[in-house]
Hints:
Organism: Desulfoscipio gibsoniae DSM 7213
Strand content: 15-25%
Domain Acyl-CoA dehydrogenase/oxidase C-terminal: 229-374
Helix content: 40-55%
Cofactor: FAD
GO molecular function: acyl-CoA dehydrogenase activity; flavin adenine dinucleotide binding
Number of strands: 10
Pathway: Amino-acid degradation; L-valine degradation
Oligomer: single chain
Number of domains: 3
Bound molecules: flavin-adenine dinucleotide
Amino acid sequence: MDFSLSEEHKLLRQTISRFVKKNIIPLAEEIDAGEEIPSHLLQDIAKQGYFGIRYPEAYGGAGSDMISYIIMVEEMAYGSMSVAAAVSVHTSAGTMPIYRFGSEEQKQKYLVPAIKGEKIGCFALTEPNAGSDVAAIQTTARKVRDGYLLNGSKTFITNALRANYAIVAAKTDFAKGRKGISLFIVDKETPGFQVLRKLSKMSIRGSDTGELIFEECFVPSGALLGEEGKGFDYLKESLVDGRIMTAANCLGVCRAAFDAGLTYARQREQFGQQIGKFQAVNFKLADMAVDLEAARLLVYYSAWLSDVNKERAKEASIAKLFASEAANRIATKAVEIHGGYGIMMEYPVQRLYRDARFLTIGEGTSDIQRLVIGNLLVF
Length: 379
Ligand SMILES: Cc1cc2nc3c(=O)[nH]c(=O)nc-3n(C[C@H](O)[C@H](O)[C@H](O)COP(=O)(O)OP(=O)(O)OC[C@H]3O[C@@H](n4cnc5c(N)ncnc54)[C@H](O)[C@@H]3O)c2cc1C
């Protein structure tokens, strides 16, 4: 058994970490307060080739493995969870279904420019009345001559405002329930497709989240992704590695909050000594270190399972559940270690505390992960 990263992976981490320290960390507070990621930052990230880490060279990617991708996502989240959310959605749900299930024409039209950063993607599944219960989506795609007419609304969509296209889940056959779900690629400028509004959040504020509306929105037959009625199966297949990716986001936040707590505990003095030397504070740091190390092992183990193509649905959910809850525990303790400064807007630790709140919700809530793990254990 070998727990060490390869020289290539170590070098990748050093390079991305340098990029994050120089280009993302100095902007993290501004991105949070202004609720916006500057476009040039995403372009800079694209120029580094980070949008294409997982995709083959034939499409402009780096052809690297899941561990490399996880390293990139973790480092981005260490710098800013808002930036990591935008990058994660674009490089996974916003492009992966096209790579895995799309036609060559769709790959050339969307994936190739998405890897270059010329197009940004979003993934529209959640609806006002269908969150965890994916099969309950009400958006319909009615077959007409040469295409489909989309009607319905989507909410909580990451990159909604910035995206040039959306991968939209809609029912082509309502009577078939989940077997009637299909995926479509819809260009932003398509008549009948509208971004209704941007939602303001307390967590990952810089990542744009919006509502989408489809009203008699015509898309040609060529907009169908893969086969009609296979959307739910495609989602299930994509969700597993998506959870590993989200767990890596959580790990980045765990590390950032741990570092903030440890640094402050070493600097701050009360009663004539560093507060980190008081056993109460010291034990908090110890618990934070335990959570961080356990999260790291679970995340990298599930990423490794992905690279060796082993069954990993349970491990992905375990990693996501543990790492997201660990991020909340670590961030809470880091705020407590900061005393009153912990809730001052000028200290980044409050942002980490708020950003951690999103992590137990996105890509399946904690209880949905428990449901998945429990079902895989019993059935
Ligand atoms: C910032 C942000 C960004 C997002 N980005 C996207 C995106 O890009 N694309 C997209 O499609 N979606 C996105 N989502 C939606 C996200 O995936 C959903 O919020 C999530 O799946 C939960 O759905 P819900 O919010 O409707 O909660 P609900 O499903 O209504 O859940 C509410 C509560 O009930 C619990 N619950 C529900 N069902 C069960 C059950 N069977 N057993 C036990 N407990 C249950 C949940 O755990 C939760 O605690 C985003 C959400 C947020 C907050």
